[in-house]
């Protein structure tokens, strides 16, 4: 569950009185998510999400995340729109935590994305990249790109083989391949960096919302595509579904063309994306606090994906032709 900080009705009423959202009708904690405390608020003005930012979010990054959501919402992207208080400020403090009220998005996330869902995601991802292109108010380095991987490996290497035999050596080998060969000079801009199915809402086949911008950063746009191929186009048995990959990539390219260089780099970018999630999951898996209520994500899922990418010989294997 993800309510780490309790909020009393009195605290919330006092906080809400600084906004033009009317009186509080109801509020409840939201179980999903692992990073921050989230509450669903019902006020006289409608439904909203209240987020209290917990320890893993650096307060210095909040103006970037909030400014980005404001920028994207103003450009028609279906993302949470930060609500400003009567003084025109979106970020507040509640129960000793940085706090944000944002608009509620309708729809539900899909557990097993269909080909149509993958296509809709490709369109939305390219739309996000285009809408973010002129977000220059602030920037944020991707702490989980190549320079961030080796420190994660150092934390996990001694115990990695308890998760899968040979894992430590395999990661060391990956790092030695990816660090010197990581693409540079490809189109860059604002990326979501964590656009997994649980962060995308659908109503029927229509994509109605993108949430959880708390890994967003400035990086290669095609790296975001690689993250999505990993998160959306594998089957539960570990097989890559080329039909889904083709649908995602083709839809993306109708909104934002991919250059020949970006296509050529896809196998490397997909490997890197798989390694990034393998590493963060591995570190979390090996460091579950005693009595934790949140179950960590399975690192082996990303080990299987990484093994697939190591076997890829051409971008065509992902369902794209240059
Ligand atoms: N704007 C929104 N509209 C509707 N529901 C939302 C919104 N924002 C968050 N939620 C709900 O809250 C849940 C948790 O949100 P979110 O994924 O941002 O949390 P988190 O703690 O950052 O989690 P994680 O990083 O593990 O995905 C979502 O699964 C969704 O159910
Ligand atoms: N999407 C990440 C979790 C961070 O939100 C994962 O599945 O490993």
From TrEMBL:
<comment type="similarity">
    <text>Belongs to the pseudomonas-type ThrB family.</text>
</comment>
<keyword id="KW-0808">Transferase</keyword>
<dbReference type="InterPro" id="IPR011009">
    <property type="entry name" value="Kinase-like_dom_sf"/>
</dbReference>
<dbReference type="InterPro" id="IPR050249">
    <property type="entry name" value="Pseudomonas-type_ThrB"/>
</dbReference>
<dbReference type="InterPro" id="IPR005280">
    <property type="entry name" value="Homoserine_kinase_II"/>
</dbReference>
<dbReference type="Pfam" id="PF01636">
    <property type="entry name" value="APH"/>
</dbReference>
<comment type="pathway">
    <text>Amino-acid biosynthesis; L-threonine biosynthesis; L-threonine from L-aspartate: step 4/5.</text>
</comment>
<dbReference type="InterPro" id="IPR002575">
    <property type="entry name" value="Aminoglycoside_PTrfase"/>
</dbReference>
<keyword id="KW-0028">Amino-acid biosynthesis</keyword>
<keyword id="KW-0791">Threonine biosynthesis</keyword>
<protein>
    <recommendedName>
        <fullName>Homoserine kinase</fullName>
        <ecNumber>2.7.1.39</ecNumber>
    </recommendedName>
</protein>
<keyword id="KW-0067">ATP-binding</keyword>
<feature type="domain" description="Aminoglycoside phosphotransferase">
    <location>
        <begin position="28"/>
        <end position="258"/>
    </location>
</feature>
<keyword id="KW-0547">Nucleotide-binding</keyword>
<keyword id="KW-0418">Kinase</keyword>
<dbReference type="GO" id="GO:0004413">
    <property type="term" value="F:homoserine kinase activity"/>
</dbReference>
């Amino acid at each position: 569950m993800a309510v780490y900080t309790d909020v009393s009705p009195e605290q919330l009423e006092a906080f809400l009185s600084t906004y033009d959202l009317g009186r509080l009708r109801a509020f409840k904690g939201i179980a999903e998510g692992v990073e921050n405390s989230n509450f669903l608020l019902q006020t006289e003005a409608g439904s909203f999400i209240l987020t209290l930012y917990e320890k893993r979010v650096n307060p210095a990054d909040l103006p970037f995340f909030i400014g980005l959501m404001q920028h994207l919402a103003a450009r028609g992207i279906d993302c949470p729109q930060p609500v400003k208080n009567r003084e025109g400020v979106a970020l507040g403090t509640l129960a000793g935590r940085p706090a944000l009220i944002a608009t509620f998005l309708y729809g539900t996330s899909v557990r097993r994305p269909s080909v149509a869902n993958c296509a809709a995601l490709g369109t939305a991802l390219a739309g996000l990249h285009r809408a973010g292109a002129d977000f220059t108010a602030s920037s944020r380095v991707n702490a989980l790109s190549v320079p961030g991987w080796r420190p994660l490996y150092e934390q996990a290497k001694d115990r990695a083989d308890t998760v899968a035999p040979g894992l430590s050596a395999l990661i060391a080998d990956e790092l030695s391949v990816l660090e010197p060969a990581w693409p540079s000079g490809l189109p860059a801009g604002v990326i979501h960096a964590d656009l997994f199915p649980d962060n995308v809402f659908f109503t029927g086949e229509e994509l109605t919302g993108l949430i959880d911008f708390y890994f967003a950063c400035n990086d290669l746009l095609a790296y975001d595509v690689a993250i999505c191929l990993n998160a959306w186009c594998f089957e539960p048995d570990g097989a890559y579904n080329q039909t889904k990959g083709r649908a995602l990539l083709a839809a993306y390219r109708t909104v934002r063309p991919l250059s020949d260089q970006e296509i050529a780099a896809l196998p490397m970018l997909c490997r890197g994306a798989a390694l990034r999630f393998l590493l963060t999951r591995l570190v979390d898996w090996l460091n579950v606090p005693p009595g934790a209520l949140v179950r960590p994500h399975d690192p082996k899922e990303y080990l299987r994906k990484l093994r697939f990418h190591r076997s890829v010989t051409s971008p065509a294997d992902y369902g794209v032709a240059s």
